[in-house]
Each structure stands twice: as C-alpha cells, then as structure tokens.
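Quarterly update, task 2.4: alpha-D-glucopyranose-bound model.
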Amino acid sequence: MPEWIPTGLLKPGKMDYMAQTINVLFLAAEAEPFVKVGGLGDVAGSLPRALRALSTDDLKLDVRLVLPRHSAIRAQGERPLGIFSIPRGDSEVQAEAFEGLHEGMPVYFISGDPITASGSVYSLDSRLDAEKYTFFSLAALELQRQINWTADIVHTNDWHTALAAYGVLTQRWEGGIHRTGNLITIHNLPFLGPDVSAVLQSYGLKLAQTDLPDWARVLPLPLGLWASDAIVAVSPTYAQEILKPEANGLYEFLNSRRETVSGILNGLDTVSFNPADDPALGVNFDTESLEKRSENKMLLQERLKMASEPEVPLFAMISRMDPQKGVDVALTALRNMRRSKRKWQAVILGTGDPKLEEAALKLQKDMPNQVHVETRYDAGLARQIYAGADIFLMPSRYEPCGLSQMIAMRYGCVPVVSAVGGLNDTVKHGETGFVFQEPKPKPLADALRAAMKIYEDRVAWRMLQQNGMEQDFSWAKSARKYLELYQSLIKNL
Ligand code: GLC
C-alpha cells in the first residue's frame, strides 16, 4: 500500500461517529471566489458551503475544499500549514499546504513544483496538466494525514481531480481498511484529461485492471469514474444523455454502472445574482417592479452605443465562444433573420475560439444597426445585459447544466434554449421560456420568431418573466440531494 494514502483507521466507532459528522473532502481545479475559469468554478464555490449550511445539531457536515495554489489564486489571508512530500520515482516532490477560511469553511491550497510549472489553471500543454493534476490529487489525499482529519467522502469533480478517487480505490484494493466513499461529479464528459499512464507509474500507482475500454484506461476521468461509488451528472437530463451512444465512447461502461449514475441539478448563487440588489445594475428591480427593467435596457444601449429602441426586442447571448454553446448556430440564425418582419436587436458578449469571435464580429460588421458584439469576459457588463435584454439565446449542442439560463430567468430575461441537458430541466416551454428541439439555425430562428410574437403581448410576456424570476434555483435543494447520496454511500461502505 502506498504509504501516503490515508487509511481512515483513525476513525473510532464508525456508527456513533457517523450520526454526528460527515467529513467531505471536496476537490476541484477552480472555485469562486479564489479562481474561476468556467461553470465548475461557480459550483465548487457554492456547493461545499451550501452543504455545510445543512448542518444541524444532530448532523454536522464538515465539508472542506481543496484547490491547487495556481498563480491566479486570489489570496485571502491563508496561512502556511506545512510541507510534506509525495514519493515520485526514486525521489519525492514537495507539497506545501496553506489553509484559509471562507465564510467559516476551511479551504486548503496545495502548492508544489508541478503546480507552479504550469502557469495557468488549465495549460495548453497536456503533459504539464497531467503532472499537475496527478500531483494535486495525490497531495490532496495526503493532506488529510497532515491535518489529522479523514474524509468519509472524497468528492471529486471532472477529470482534473478524478485521480483522487482512483487513489482512494487503489488503497482499498491494496488491502487498506477503507472507510472513504468516492463520489464524482461530471460537469463536462468530453473532457477526459491527458494520458497519465507514465505519470501515475512514477507516483507509484499501478494502472488497474479495469472494465474500461482500452483507450480509456490511461485517462483520468474514465479512471475516476471507474473508481467512484457514485457518478453524478450536473442535471437529470444530462445523466440520461451520458448513457446514450452519442455522448461518447464511455457510454457502454457507464451503462454497466447505471445504478450508480444520477443527475443533480446545479444551483445558482441567488445572493450574488439578485436583481433586487445587484450593485452592477443601473436600476434594481424585482417581480413587482419589472417595468424598471426598461431603464436598464436604455442604459445598456447607451453604454454599447446601440440605437435606443425601447419597444424592439433585444436578444442577448453571453457565452464562452465554443462550439458546445452553439454560437455558430445563433450567428447563422440571426443572419437568416435579417429581413424578418419584426424588428430586433442583438448583443453578444463572450470570448474563446478565435474563429467564432471573428464570425461574430463579421455579423456585427454586416448588420451594424442590429448586432453588437463584445469579444471579452466582463462580469459586470454581463449582469447589465441580463437585466436589460429581453430574450436570452442558448442554442447549446450539449449543456451538462448551464448557469446563464438560470441567471437570465432570475433577471427577467426570457430564455430561448435547445432541449438538452440542464437547459431541458430548467426552462419550461411556454411557462418560463422557449425550448426548441434541434440546436440548428432554423429551429432557433423559429423559436425566436415565436418569442417575438409573444413579446408584443405585454401581459403574456410579463407572465413569462415573472414565472422565471420566481423559480427556486437556490443551492439548498441540490445540496440536500448530495447529502442523501453521501449518506447512502456511507451506509454501504
Ligand atoms: C460545465 C458545463 C456547464 C455546467 C458547468 C457546471 O461548464 O459545460 O453546462 O453548468 O460545468 O457544472
């Protein structure tokens, strides 16, 4: 048994202990407010605290977050905890742990050469990432021993931390008395991670005999899925989609684990995203004062130097410029709607794939009076768009959960979405928005035309907005589902 893996033997009388505390080590590559690249950062920033908030007198949820100490980490007064070493080949790599407190939750940051070597959160060099996240996952497990605290559940997220699940399972296999359950959340199945066979070997972890397809046996996400007791997709519809052949080559394997696969919808940070007191907005509003949105629309049009058109529906797209998000689908649909009988305007905000950025800028050039494009990341402007635009476009090809459609609804911006993943689970057609089947230009354009027609009926439109704003997207619901899953895993350990 590799020496550095915690054995869980420190736990006294498990049954008595369990009634009081569930220890959860929550691993992620990114988490708000420390560092954020995408949706994973939102989830890892909110879910651990939402879980802790479920604690009662009878049950304490001691969830602790552990992150790599990327150079981009915004320090929050964390203190150095100590240095420990992780065996690698004939030598060892030093890991340094720091501890911070975020709203009462211990947050650990792990530093070390493999983490500093790759400057960014995700490197373009897959070898650097393979080393970085393998090291991080193993060091995060070892951290438990350093702080004299043992997880009942190791909760991993996506490929970056999936090897921690593999580490836990390998330890079980090699004869350790395990008391740790593995739960992995899939935020984006196609990202499987780089080949880690060499790196794993150098850290003393053998490649196990798995029932994974050959090509997947050396990749972190498949190994993590294989090692996990529970596999959670970030929405119920995505949980079904990943079992279908179209999802990717893992579908047969996932089907063989069917009974361990479930879907738990992500929540939204409803405190931060609240139009009633969002400081980024020119004018705050709620369901009772929806008419104030028009001032936000005016301010937005002024800021972006767009024609002030209070009555014309303003479409919005705020998205990573990525084929996943159907940005090209939206651009083609808008181009084809050039001569539609109803007037419209559109604002597009986002950065990413240079080809998509270019295509968006080309659309702006060709339709300067209708389309405004900003190719950058701007959280403040995004909030102003949610609060001022009328119709939110999200024609994703696949969408494990999606956050923007929830923010849009909360801000009274009615979403038009494709019927995939979390979009299908959060937007109710005709009630809170418009759902179309195929993420293709024609169905999107048809849905936009239908939306524009209803937009003219102010009473019906207000209903859609209010219904959307009244949805409960808070994290508490999702956190309770995760808790139930933790409890069932612990029972079966
Ligand atoms: C990924 C998915 C997105 C999901 C997010 C958080 O970014 O693409 O759909 O909302 O993870 O789970």
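Highlight for this quarter: Confidence is low (pLDDT under 50) at residues 1-18.
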